[in-house]
Amino acid sequence: MTHSDTTGHLLTLADMDRATLSSLLDQAEHYILQTGKPAPRNNHLAGFTVANLFYEPSTRTRASFELAAKRLGADVLNLDVDTSSAVKGETVLDTVDTLLAMGVNAFVVRHRDEGVLELLANHIGARAVVINAGEGTSNHPTQGLLDMLTIRQHKPDFAELTVTIIGDIKHSRVARSDVQALHTLGVKALRFAGPDNLLPTDIENWPGERNADIDAALKGADVLMLLRIQKERLVDTSLPFDDYFKAFGISPARLALAAPDAIVLHPGPMNRGVEIDDAVADGPQSVIRKQVANGVAVRMAVLETLLKKPQAIKRQD
Length: 317
Ligand code: CP
Description:
Layout: H1 18-29, E1 49-54, H2 60-71, E2 75-79, H3 92-101, E3 106-111, H4 116-124, E4 129-135, H5 141-154, E5 162-166, H6 173-184, E6 189-193, E7 209-210, H7 214-218, E8 223-226, H8 231-234, H9 241-248, H10 252-255, E9 263-265, H11 278-281, H12 288-308
Helix pairs in contact: 1-5, 1-12, 2-12, 3-4, 5-6, 5-12
The chain binds phosphoric acid mono(formamide)ester (CP).
The site of phosphoric acid mono(formamide)ester (CP) has 9 residues, from helix 2.
Protein backbone atom coordinates (compact mmCIF):
# COMPACT_ATOMS: atom_id res chain seq x y z
CA MET A 1 0.00 0.00 0.00
CA THR A 2 1.35 3.46 -0.79
CA HIS A 3 0.99 6.61 1.25
CA SER A 4 -0.89 8.28 -1.63
CA ASP A 5 -4.21 8.37 0.20
CA THR A 6 -2.89 9.49 3.58
CA THR A 7 -2.74 13.22 2.89
CA GLY A 8 -3.26 15.27 6.02
CA HIS A 9 -1.59 12.72 8.31
CA LEU A 10 2.06 12.38 9.34
CA LEU A 11 3.18 8.79 8.80
CA THR A 12 6.70 9.11 7.41
CA LEU A 13 9.41 11.57 6.40
CA ALA A 14 10.20 9.51 3.29
CA ASP A 15 8.07 11.65 0.99
CA MET A 16 8.05 15.01 2.81
CA ASP A 17 9.44 17.79 0.65
CA ARG A 18 12.41 19.86 1.71
CA ALA A 19 10.51 23.14 2.09
CA THR A 20 7.90 21.52 4.32
CA LEU A 21 10.57 19.91 6.48
CA SER A 22 12.44 23.19 6.88
CA SER A 23 9.25 25.10 7.57
CA LEU A 24 8.27 22.69 10.38
CA LEU A 25 11.72 23.22 11.91
CA ASP A 26 11.31 27.01 11.57
CA GLN A 27 7.94 26.84 13.30
CA ALA A 28 9.38 24.68 16.09
CA GLU A 29 12.02 27.36 16.76
CA HIS A 30 9.20 29.61 18.04
CA TYR A 31 8.34 27.02 20.67
CA ILE A 32 11.82 26.36 22.08
CA LEU A 33 11.99 26.48 25.86
CA GLN A 34 14.18 29.38 27.04
CA THR A 35 16.16 28.86 30.25
CA GLY A 36 14.55 30.60 33.20
CA LYS A 37 11.40 31.55 31.27
CA PRO A 38 7.95 29.97 31.35
CA ALA A 39 7.32 27.44 28.58
CA PRO A 40 5.91 29.00 25.40
CA ARG A 41 2.17 28.49 25.26
CA ASN A 42 -0.90 29.76 23.42
CA ASN A 43 -4.46 28.74 22.65
CA HIS A 44 -4.03 27.95 18.97
CA LEU A 45 -5.52 24.48 19.48
CA ALA A 46 -8.25 25.45 21.95
CA GLY A 47 -11.28 23.28 21.27
CA PHE A 48 -9.25 20.44 19.72
CA THR A 49 -8.76 17.07 21.42
CA VAL A 50 -5.58 15.02 21.02
CA ALA A 51 -5.51 11.33 21.99
CA ASN A 52 -2.24 9.52 22.76
CA LEU A 53 -2.49 5.81 21.94
CA PHE A 54 0.76 4.05 22.79
CA TYR A 55 0.73 0.30 22.21
CA GLU A 56 4.47 0.19 23.01
CA PRO A 57 6.35 1.79 25.93
CA SER A 58 7.51 5.41 25.70
CA THR A 59 8.77 8.13 28.00
CA ARG A 60 9.99 10.95 25.76
CA THR A 61 7.58 10.79 22.83
CA ARG A 62 4.44 10.33 24.89
CA ALA A 63 5.31 12.98 27.49
CA SER A 64 6.37 15.50 24.85
CA PHE A 65 3.21 15.04 22.76
CA GLU A 66 1.14 15.54 25.90
CA LEU A 67 3.02 18.70 26.86
CA ALA A 68 2.94 19.96 23.27
CA ALA A 69 -0.83 19.58 22.99
CA LYS A 70 -1.46 21.15 26.40
CA ARG A 71 0.83 24.10 25.66
CA LEU A 72 -1.26 24.78 22.54
CA GLY A 73 -4.46 24.76 24.59
CA ALA A 74 -5.82 21.40 23.37
CA ASP A 75 -7.60 18.82 25.51
CA VAL A 76 -5.46 15.69 25.88
CA LEU A 77 -6.54 12.12 26.37
CA ASN A 78 -3.85 9.59 27.35
CA LEU A 79 -5.36 6.18 26.78
CA ASP A 80 -3.79 3.61 29.07
CA VAL A 81 -3.71 0.72 26.62
CA ASP A 82 -2.91 -1.81 29.37
CA THR A 83 -6.16 -1.03 31.17
CA SER A 84 -8.27 -0.17 28.10
CA SER A 85 -10.61 -2.50 26.28
CA ALA A 86 -7.65 -3.44 24.04
CA VAL A 87 -6.88 -6.12 26.65
CA LYS A 88 -10.39 -7.51 26.08
CA GLY A 89 -9.61 -7.85 22.39
CA GLU A 90 -10.98 -4.56 21.07
CA THR A 91 -9.28 -3.78 17.75
CA VAL A 92 -7.33 -0.59 17.18
CA LEU A 93 -9.99 0.47 14.63
CA ASP A 94 -12.81 -0.02 17.15
CA THR A 95 -10.85 1.92 19.76
CA VAL A 96 -10.32 4.76 17.29
CA ASP A 97 -13.98 4.77 16.24
CA THR A 98 -14.99 4.95 19.91
CA LEU A 99 -12.74 7.96 20.48
CA LEU A 100 -13.83 9.61 17.22
CA ALA A 101 -17.39 9.45 18.56
CA MET A 102 -16.16 11.45 21.57
CA GLY A 103 -14.74 14.18 19.33
CA VAL A 104 -11.03 13.34 19.16
CA ASN A 105 -9.34 15.38 16.41
CA ALA A 106 -5.83 13.93 16.44
CA PHE A 107 -4.50 10.46 17.20
CA VAL A 108 -0.86 10.13 18.21
CA VAL A 109 -0.13 6.44 17.80
CA ARG A 110 2.83 4.16 18.57
CA HIS A 111 2.51 0.55 17.46
CA ARG A 112 4.86 -2.38 17.00
CA ASP A 113 3.26 -3.58 13.77
CA GLU A 114 4.20 -2.12 10.39
CA GLY A 115 1.20 -0.86 8.47
CA VAL A 116 -1.12 -0.13 11.40
CA LEU A 117 -0.59 3.61 11.04
CA GLU A 118 -1.47 3.54 7.36
CA LEU A 119 -4.51 1.39 8.09
CA LEU A 120 -5.66 3.94 10.66
CA ALA A 121 -5.05 6.91 8.38
CA ASN A 122 -7.03 5.30 5.58
CA HIS A 123 -9.83 4.37 7.96
CA ILE A 124 -10.05 7.80 9.58
CA GLY A 125 -9.58 9.82 6.40
CA ALA A 126 -10.45 13.48 6.91
CA ARG A 127 -12.31 12.91 10.18
CA ALA A 128 -9.12 13.36 12.28
CA VAL A 129 -5.37 13.50 11.99
CA VAL A 130 -3.04 10.53 12.55
CA ILE A 131 0.52 11.15 13.72
CA ASN A 132 3.05 8.33 13.77
CA ALA A 133 4.79 8.23 17.17
CA GLY A 134 6.90 5.18 16.30
CA GLU A 135 5.98 2.25 14.06
CA GLY A 136 7.77 -1.09 14.15
CA THR A 137 11.24 -0.67 12.72
CA SER A 138 10.13 1.60 9.88
CA ASN A 139 9.21 5.15 10.88
CA HIS A 140 9.52 7.65 13.75
CA PRO A 141 8.99 10.91 11.87
CA THR A 142 8.81 13.34 14.80
CA GLN A 143 12.06 11.92 16.18
CA GLY A 144 13.60 12.55 12.76
CA LEU A 145 12.34 16.14 12.83
CA LEU A 146 13.63 16.85 16.34
CA ASP A 147 17.00 15.37 15.41
CA MET A 148 17.18 17.66 12.35
CA LEU A 149 16.28 20.67 14.49
CA THR A 150 18.99 19.78 17.00
CA ILE A 151 21.61 19.36 14.27
CA ARG A 152 20.54 22.57 12.51
CA GLN A 153 20.87 24.60 15.72
CA HIS A 154 24.55 23.64 15.91
CA LYS A 155 25.41 23.16 12.26
CA PRO A 156 23.05 25.03 9.96
CA ASP A 157 24.46 23.94 6.59
CA PHE A 158 23.58 20.30 5.95
CA ALA A 159 25.49 20.40 2.65
CA GLU A 160 28.73 20.62 4.66
CA LEU A 161 28.03 17.84 7.14
CA THR A 162 29.36 14.33 7.53
CA VAL A 163 26.99 12.33 9.74
CA THR A 164 27.87 8.92 11.20
CA ILE A 165 25.08 6.64 12.44
CA ILE A 166 26.25 3.90 14.80
CA GLY A 167 24.60 0.83 16.30
CA ASP A 168 21.53 -1.31 15.71
CA ILE A 169 20.52 0.30 12.44
CA LYS A 170 18.67 -2.81 11.32
CA HIS A 171 15.91 -2.51 13.92
CA SER A 172 15.91 1.28 14.21
CA ARG A 173 12.93 3.31 13.08
CA VAL A 174 14.86 6.37 14.29
CA ALA A 175 17.71 5.62 11.87
CA ARG A 176 15.30 5.25 8.95
CA SER A 177 13.52 8.55 9.64
CA ASP A 178 16.84 10.32 10.24
CA VAL A 179 18.33 9.02 7.00
CA GLN A 180 15.24 10.10 5.05
CA ALA A 181 15.36 13.60 6.53
CA LEU A 182 19.14 14.00 6.15
CA HIS A 183 18.90 12.89 2.53
CA THR A 184 16.08 15.37 1.85
CA LEU A 185 18.05 18.18 3.50
CA GLY A 186 21.05 17.39 1.29
CA VAL A 187 23.61 16.18 3.82
CA LYS A 188 27.12 15.94 2.34
CA ALA A 189 27.99 12.44 3.58
CA LEU A 190 26.35 9.67 5.56
CA ARG A 191 28.29 6.83 7.17
CA PHE A 192 26.94 3.72 8.85
CA ALA A 193 28.70 1.52 11.40
CA GLY A 194 27.58 -1.38 13.57
CA PRO A 195 27.82 -5.14 14.04
CA ASP A 196 27.21 -7.03 10.80
CA ASN A 197 24.08 -8.69 12.12
CA LEU A 198 22.62 -5.37 13.28
CA LEU A 199 22.93 -3.69 9.89
CA PRO A 200 20.03 -3.84 7.41
CA THR A 201 20.51 -6.48 4.75
CA ASP A 202 19.96 -3.79 2.10
CA ILE A 203 22.39 -1.27 3.65
CA GLU A 204 24.28 -1.10 0.34
CA ASN A 205 21.17 0.57 -1.13
CA TRP A 206 20.99 3.23 1.59
CA PRO A 207 22.22 6.71 0.66
CA GLY A 208 25.59 6.51 2.37
CA GLU A 209 28.66 4.44 3.01
CA ARG A 210 28.95 1.43 5.28
CA ASN A 211 32.18 1.40 7.30
CA ALA A 212 33.33 -1.89 8.81
CA ASP A 213 35.98 0.04 10.74
CA ILE A 214 34.41 2.17 13.49
CA ASP A 215 37.45 4.46 13.70
CA ALA A 216 37.23 5.19 9.98
CA ALA A 217 33.49 5.86 10.35
CA LEU A 218 34.17 8.41 13.08
CA LYS A 219 37.15 10.16 11.49
CA GLY A 220 36.35 13.84 10.98
CA ALA A 221 32.58 13.34 11.37
CA ASP A 222 30.56 16.42 12.32
CA VAL A 223 27.60 14.59 13.83
CA LEU A 224 27.48 11.22 15.63
CA MET A 225 24.04 9.67 15.89
CA LEU A 226 24.05 6.77 18.34
CA LEU A 227 21.23 4.26 18.52
CA ARG A 228 19.91 2.26 21.40
CA ILE A 229 21.25 -1.27 21.52
CA GLN A 230 18.25 -3.39 22.31
CA LYS A 231 18.98 -6.14 24.79
CA GLU A 232 16.23 -8.25 23.31
CA ARG A 233 17.91 -8.07 19.88
CA LEU A 234 21.38 -8.92 21.16
CA VAL A 235 20.20 -12.20 22.66
CA ASP A 236 20.45 -13.72 19.19
CA THR A 237 23.87 -12.34 18.43
CA SER A 238 27.37 -13.38 19.31
CA LEU A 239 28.15 -9.92 20.66
CA PRO A 240 27.49 -9.44 24.41
CA PHE A 241 27.09 -5.93 25.80
CA ASP A 242 30.69 -5.68 27.11
CA ASP A 243 32.07 -6.66 23.74
CA TYR A 244 29.72 -4.24 22.01
CA PHE A 245 31.16 -1.35 23.99
CA LYS A 246 34.70 -2.36 23.08
CA ALA A 247 33.78 -2.70 19.41
CA PHE A 248 31.35 0.20 18.83
CA GLY A 249 30.76 2.11 22.09
CA ILE A 250 31.56 5.82 22.01
CA SER A 251 34.22 6.63 24.59
CA PRO A 252 36.06 9.97 24.90
CA ALA A 253 38.95 8.44 22.90
CA ARG A 254 36.65 7.46 20.06
CA LEU A 255 34.87 10.82 20.14
CA ALA A 256 38.28 12.49 19.72
CA LEU A 257 38.50 10.91 16.25
CA ALA A 258 35.53 12.99 15.08
CA ALA A 259 35.74 16.69 14.22
CA PRO A 260 36.76 18.76 17.27
CA ASP A 261 33.33 20.42 17.36
CA ALA A 262 31.35 17.25 16.60
CA ILE A 263 28.03 16.82 18.36
CA VAL A 264 26.63 13.57 19.78
CA LEU A 265 22.97 12.62 19.51
CA HIS A 266 21.09 9.69 21.04
CA PRO A 267 17.30 9.25 20.82
CA GLY A 268 17.14 7.60 24.26
CA PRO A 269 16.71 5.67 26.34
CA MET A 270 20.49 5.32 26.61
CA ASN A 271 22.35 2.21 27.72
CA ARG A 272 25.25 3.85 29.50
CA GLY A 273 28.40 1.80 29.23
CA VAL A 274 27.02 -0.06 26.21
CA GLU A 275 26.63 2.34 23.29
CA ILE A 276 27.92 5.40 25.13
CA ASP A 277 30.30 6.23 27.94
CA ASP A 278 29.05 8.45 30.78
CA ALA A 279 31.74 11.02 30.00
CA VAL A 280 30.39 11.39 26.45
CA ALA A 281 26.70 11.24 27.38
CA ASP A 282 27.14 14.04 29.93
CA GLY A 283 30.02 15.83 28.21
CA PRO A 284 30.13 19.18 26.42
CA GLN A 285 29.62 17.70 22.95
CA SER A 286 26.46 15.85 23.93
CA VAL A 287 23.20 17.41 22.70
CA ILE A 288 21.05 14.59 24.05
CA ARG A 289 19.10 16.73 26.55
CA LYS A 290 18.62 19.36 23.87
CA GLN A 291 17.02 16.69 21.67
CA VAL A 292 14.52 16.05 24.46
CA ALA A 293 13.71 19.74 24.82
CA ASN A 294 13.39 20.12 21.06
CA GLY A 295 10.96 17.20 21.02
CA VAL A 296 8.25 19.30 22.65
CA ALA A 297 8.79 22.22 20.28
CA VAL A 298 8.74 20.00 17.18
CA ARG A 299 5.58 18.24 18.31
CA MET A 300 3.90 21.60 18.92
CA ALA A 301 4.76 22.57 15.35
CA VAL A 302 3.50 19.26 13.97
CA LEU A 303 0.22 19.29 15.91
CA GLU A 304 -0.50 22.91 15.04
CA THR A 305 0.30 22.46 11.36
CA LEU A 306 -1.66 19.25 10.89
CA LEU A 307 -4.71 20.51 12.75
CA LYS A 308 -4.77 24.11 11.46
CA LYS A 309 -2.90 24.13 8.12
CA PRO A 310 -2.73 20.55 6.78
CA GLN A 311 -2.33 21.85 3.22
CA ALA A 312 1.11 23.16 4.28
CA ILE A 313 2.44 19.58 4.41
CA LYS A 314 3.74 18.96 0.89
CA ARG A 315 5.16 15.78 -0.60
CA GLN A 316 8.13 15.37 -2.88
CA ASP A 317 7.27 15.15 -6.56
N1 CP B 1 13.20 8.43 21.38
C1 CP B 1 12.08 7.79 21.77
O1 CP B 1 11.21 7.42 20.96
O2 CP B 1 11.97 7.64 23.13
P1 CP B 1 10.73 6.99 23.88
O3 CP B 1 10.69 5.53 23.50
O4 CP B 1 10.98 7.22 25.35
O5 CP B 1 9.47 7.69 23.41
